Amino acid sequence: MPQCPPGSFSYTVRPGDNFWTLAWRFGTTPQAIARANPGVNSWSLRIGQTLCIPGWSPWVTPPQGRCPQGWEPYRIQPGDTLGNIAWERQTTVANLLRVNPVNPNNLRIGQIICVPAR
User: Fold this and answer.
1) What's the pLDDT at 52?
2) How far apart are CA 46 and CA 13, in angstroms?
3) Whole-number pLDDT of residue 68
4) Which residues touch 117 (CB under 8 Å, ≥6 apart)?
5) In Å, how far are 10, 35, 66, 96, 118 from 70, measured between CA atoms?
6) Residue 50 in contact with residue 14, Cβ under 8 Å?
């Protein structure tokens, strides 16, 4: 398994993955993924192969896995959007994105983000 540089996370290739689909899924670019994985050909990925994806893992809270003071972890539920979470927590989507480096169009059920504490 490669040691991923700071500001990236490891990802295990699944059927149908290529740099374009991964970039869309994780809110980055195919070029950034290629730079993080020198010598890897996007079109000949192997299932089970480990790649480094630039950005923060979508399954972990922000850097260092901790929420800032005054914020708490929240697990994404079916039907959640950043808009309804922001409304429920009396904040804005922009404020949620400031704390959570996530792709707002690709939230995953079970994903952990930080929200203002109640």
Assistant:
1) 92
2) 7
3) 87
4) 70, 71, 72
5) 29, 36, 11, 13, 9
6) no
Token pair, residue 18, equals 């290529």
Longest dimension (CA), the chain: 47
Is the C-alpha dihedral spanning 117, 61, 97, 24 positive or negative? Answer: negative
CA distances from 34 to 22, 43, 58, 84, 85 (A): 11, 11, 19, 35, 34
Condensed to tens digits (0 to 9), the pLDDT of residues 10-44 reads 889 999 899 998 887 777 889 999 999 999 998 89
Residue type, 39: G
| CA-angle at 5, arms to 4 and 10, nearest 5° | 25
Hey, what are 35's tokens?
A: 């730079």
Q: Which two tokens stand for residue 2?
A: 């490669």
In this structure, the number of other CB atoms found within 10 A of the CB of residue 77 comes to 12
